[in-house]
Amino acid sequence: MSNRLKDKWALVTGASSGFGAETARQLADLGANLLLGARREDRLAQVAADCQARGAASAHVHKLDVADTASVNAFADWAKATAGRVDLLINNAGGAHGVERVEDGRDADWEAMFQSNALGILRVSRAVLPLMKPHPGGIILNIGSIAGRVAYEGGSAYCASKAAERSITKALRLELNGTGLRVGTIDPGMAETEFSMVRLKGDKEKADAVYAGVEPLTAGDVAEAIVWAANRPPHVCIDEILMMCTAQAAPHKVHRGEG
Ligand code: NDP
Ligand code: 8X3
Question: Closest ligand 2 atom, CA of 147?
Fold first, then answer.
């Protein structure tokens, strides 16, 4: 496979764990320059060290809270000062909070999901686009979910925030038509990362139960899809990838074996 990402500047949000960290590592394998953001700076520093060891052209980290406009703008200013350009933007930061039905839902959980999963993408894209527009061939990949396509009980706000991601992706694709920039969404089903620990507020037993009897997607599987989409030639835009583990045919249809 041709490597079109060597020496490109890739900005990954939510790079401190899960898909974002693994995408950074796989981009490092291809010799990209990395701009990594998340709230946990100690974890970011560890990921950057991994990336340097794996052959990144360079790996830089800066604190980022996509729920805070001032933080996003400061991050974009830092990216401009550090790199001067962005070729690949991975809007990955986000997650789920809670599994309550609407009648029991909490404002703080709903607001956190919309802040990161929907508004975060808008804020980061707005701040970073000036660094991308002078360089046709760049690509924005947003991380959606099967949840943005199919709603399920206990997922109202999460599903809605991911449906919003889908609409934002489509609108951006239209708005950037003619600029040479590409926009796509990568929509995984269940994948074992810190996602369920965050969603279930640190309850490890409940988080482990999500994956019981299933071989879920890994962060590496999803990162491979992200990197593959990013590595297409400039005239090819991967609009969307929907991927689930073999045992999951739909959010409600998961085949669980013994053990
Ligand atoms: P993880 O919990 O492992 O990673 C989430 C990442 O997002 C962390 O790096 C976290 O960093 C970052 N993040 C969360 N909120 C913010 C914020 N406000 N500002 C900056 N960074 C933030 O989960 P995943 O890797 O699984 O999740 C990544 C994305 O994939 C999310 O958008 C999630 O909704 C989506 N997804 C996950 C699936 C799954 O089953 N795992 C399936 C489909 C989609 P920090 O806490 O350090 O800020
Ligand atoms: C995460 C996948 O099925 O838990 O987006 O909503 S699911």
Answer: 6
- Kindly state whether residue 176 falls inside one of the protein's structural domains: yes
Q: pLDDT tens digits, residue range 77-101?
A: 999 999 999 999 999 999 999 999 9
Tell me the ligand closest to 186's alpha carbon.
Answer: 1
Cα 183 to ligand 2 centre (Å): 22
The two three-digit tokens of residue 5, written as one number = 């990402």
φ/ψ of residue 217, rounded to 5:
-60, 155
Within 6 A (CB) of ligand 2 lie 145-147, 155, 189-190, 251
**Domain residues for 22?**
9-249
Tokens read off for 108: 């703080």
pLDDT tops 60 at residue 150 = yes
Domain presence at residue 19: yes
**CATH label of the domain that carries residue 170:** 3.40.50.720
**Is 253 noted as a catalytic residue in this protein?**
no
Q: Tell me whether residue 162 is one of the annotated catalytic residues.
A: yes
* 148 secondary structure, DSSP code: G
Is residue 1 a part of any domain in this protein? no
